[in-house]
Design the sequence.
């Protein structure tokens, strides 16, 4: 059974159709990259999977781990193992990352019928995971993302992902706004989370990230549909030829049907 | 016109009360009597404001000023000690408790004070330490126009006096508790706290204004803070009056050269609360901070009025006032930073942030600057909004339920102010109140 199966997914926001029939299957252990120009629907797909309510699903279904994903609340999805690393992580003044993350970890544990982690066990877990993305643990005692640099915010996302240990990780333009060193650190964090139990969807605008997080599959999203799919070499081809080239290839029609 | 007549009558009522009051020999003979008389005359002349006054436009006090208020009898009413335990703040150097404005010997205690530091009843200090008090009592505030402060000056009988002499550092807090109880007749008290820190002294004072059960009270308090050259005063005022109570409080602060004064104003309950803050930065290099947090429900109203006067150059002032408004509660904020023409290099910031949790809650906010110097850095601003749905989604995407996510955001909003409270047990107590008021998830 596939970890995630998206069938003919259509989504609207404020009357505009953004996703126009997405079909995608992700198996455990696979890393899928979704590429596409601005406005093609990449971020919408990521947010729809996480349960953002602003989007209206008009057609299609999403089966996650054998369950109807679209029927679940965003927090239920998170507790069931879906994780979205935000393109723009939200700043929350007044609450530390540690406090918030402990609440998140324990919400998930409670959902899965496990005992809540105590402060000591939690701190141990956090310390180990922070090292993974070279996140200064002092930042964890500061307000969530407040005053963090772009790189720190993205590292904080990957750090949270590693603590929450999802089955399906969706990375929404995690590379945007990062310098090369920060990008390598983030990629290292992501790579260390790759494993046979976990599926990943890496949404990106640039091929650059995929040099460090090498995907098993690359899909090109154009105008709300997957216009082309292929292996990791597709990303290089895109880099060389641009997105316009996809439209000109005969495969487009077949992929969209 | 009937409104004016009515408030006029209530003014007459207080004037008649004063006539009775000054028949008391001790009052009439005191050095303070002329100050009282002047204040009363000024009060009678001014009268109570109506919503036609710009400073009272959003806060209608007609009910409060047309009630027939009585003063509690001389002896403090006896109350159970554990009735006050929810308001404790951990280890303290001294606790002074006043019940309906009357000093309670049995509930008050002094532990260990730094040498030279005085914590006493104001009534005692006015007699025994007249020379010193003459310099300060009633001198910090420019009372003209502040009718409630005038009324307090006219009628004040007791309160707390905290004095830290030159170089004395009093680290543990001094807790002053003003309790209002339920009485047969609506009861007024005019408590006053005078805090004096001499050169390089340091002191922390917590004032708790608490109402027991549904006390039908009017607390008309004045807090005067004198922070001498290089002195540090930490002051926290917590208002937890009963849901039927009126609270009119004035805080006046006077800061000398290189002095630092921090005051937090936290308000949880009370039917109507008005806080007036007046601060005067009189010496170069002074810095004053006023933080505020109100968390209201039902039809409660809190009105914070600030006036920060930068008199001397190179001073800093910060005001961060936040409010969380549920049900049909109402928040009012009016702040004014006033920079005198000599006060060059002033650095000042005033922010008012309001979080509305209900469609019926209402906020009026008016941050203002008045600047007469030409080389200053002053900013002010106000935000009024609801919980950020983007942030709710972020938290839910991490596994928190909708209620838990919203609660966390409200908690976080409140914490920004509470984190500035350096008295840890007090911070914990206030944080617990915030958490307790959030919907159960």
Sequence:
């Amino acid at each position: 059974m596939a970890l995630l199966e998206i069938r003919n997914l259509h989504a609207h926001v404020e009357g505009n159709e953004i996703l126009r029939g997405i079909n995608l299957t992700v198996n455990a252990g696979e890393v899928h990259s979704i590429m596409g120009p601005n406005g093609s629907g990449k971020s919408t797909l990521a947010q729809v999977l996480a349960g953002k309510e602003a989007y209206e699903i008009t057609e299609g279904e999403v089966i996650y781990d054998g369950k109807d994903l679209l029927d679940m609340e965003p927090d239920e999805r998170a507790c069931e193992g879906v994780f979205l690393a935000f393109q723009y992580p939200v700043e929350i003044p007044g609450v530390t990352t540690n406090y918030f993350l402990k609440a998140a970890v324990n919400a998930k544990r409670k959902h899965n019928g496990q005992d809540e982690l105590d402060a000591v066990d939690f701190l141990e877990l956090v310390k180990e995971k922070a090292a993974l993305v070279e996140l200064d643990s002092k930042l964890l005692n500061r307000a969530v993302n407040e005053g963090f640099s772009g790189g720190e915010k993205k590292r904080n996302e990957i750090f949270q992902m590693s603590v929450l240990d999802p089955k399906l990780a969706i990375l929404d333009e995690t590379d945007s706004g990062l310098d090369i060193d920060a990008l390598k650190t983030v990629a290292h964090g992501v790579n260390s989370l790759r494993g046979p139990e976990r599926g990943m969807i890496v949404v990106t605008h640039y091929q650059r990230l995929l040099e460090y997080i090498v995907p098993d599959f690359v899909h090109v999203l154009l105008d709300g549909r997957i216009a082309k799919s292929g292996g990791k070499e597709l990303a290089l081809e895109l880099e060389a030829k641009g997105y316009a080239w996809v439209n000109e290839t005969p495969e487009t029609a077949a992929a969209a049907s | 016109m009937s409104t004016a007549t009515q408030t006029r009558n209530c003014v007459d009522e207080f004037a008649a009360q004063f006539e009775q009051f000054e028949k008391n020999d001790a009052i009439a003979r005191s050095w303070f009597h002329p100050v009282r008389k002047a204040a009363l005359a000024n009060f009678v002349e001014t009268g109570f404001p109506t919503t036609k006054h710009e400073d009272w436009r959003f806060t209608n006090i007609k009910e409060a000023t047309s009630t027939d208020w009585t003063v509690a009898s001389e002896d403090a009413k006896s109350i159970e000690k554990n009735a006050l335990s929810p308001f404790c703040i951990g280890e303290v150097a001294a606790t002074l408790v006043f019940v309906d404005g009357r000093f309670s010997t049995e509930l008050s205690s002094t532990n260990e004070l730094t040498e030279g530091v005085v914590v006493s009843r104001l009534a005692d200090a006015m007699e025994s330490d007249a020379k010193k008090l003459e310099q300060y009592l009633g001198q910090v505030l420019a009372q003209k126009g502040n009718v409630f402060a005038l009324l307090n000056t006219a009628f004040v009988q007791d309160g707390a006096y905290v004095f830290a002499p030159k170089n004395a550092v009093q680290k543990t807090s001094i807790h002053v508790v003003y309790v209002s109880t339920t009485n047969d007749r609506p009861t007024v008290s005019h408590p006053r706290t005078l805090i004096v820190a001499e050169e390089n002294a340091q002191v922390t004072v917590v004032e708790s204004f608490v109402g027991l059960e549904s006390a039908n009270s009017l607390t008309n308090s004045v807090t005067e803070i004198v922070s001498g050259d290089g002195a540090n005063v930490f002051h926290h005022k917590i208002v937890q009056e009963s849901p039927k109570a009126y609270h009119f409080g004035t805080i006046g602060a006077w800061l000398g050269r290189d002095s630092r004064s921090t005051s937090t104003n936290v308000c949880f309950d009370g039917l109507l609360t008005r806080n007036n803050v007046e601060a005067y930065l009189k010496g170069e290099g002074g810095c004053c901070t006023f933080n505020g947090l109100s968390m209201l429900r039902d039809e409660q109203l809190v009105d914070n009025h600030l006036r920060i006067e930068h008199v001397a150059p190179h001073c800093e002032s910060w005001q961060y006032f936040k409010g969380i408004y549920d049900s049909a509660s109402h928040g009012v904020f009016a702040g004014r930073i006033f920079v005198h023409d000599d006060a060059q290099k002033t650095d000042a910031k005033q922010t008012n942030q309001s979080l509305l949790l209900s469609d019926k809650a209402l906020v009026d906010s008016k941050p203002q600057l008045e600047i007469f110097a030409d080389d200053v850095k002053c900013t002010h601003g106000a935000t009024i909004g609801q919980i950020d749905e983007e942030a709710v989604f972020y938290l839910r995407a991490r596994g928190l339920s909708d209620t838990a996510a919203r609660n966390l955001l409200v908690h976080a909003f409140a914490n920004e102010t509470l984190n500035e409270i350096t008295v840890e047990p007090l911070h914990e107590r206030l944080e617990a109140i915030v958490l307790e008021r959030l919907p159960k998830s």
Observations:
- Residues 4-256 of chain A form a domain with the Rossmann fold fold (CATH 3.40.50.300).
- Chain A touches chain B at residues 50-53, 73-75, 77-79, 83-84, 86, 89-90, 92-95, 100-101, 103-105, 107-108, 111, 143, 160, 164 (CB under 8 Å).
- The CA atoms of residues 135 and 219 of chain A lie 31 Å apart.
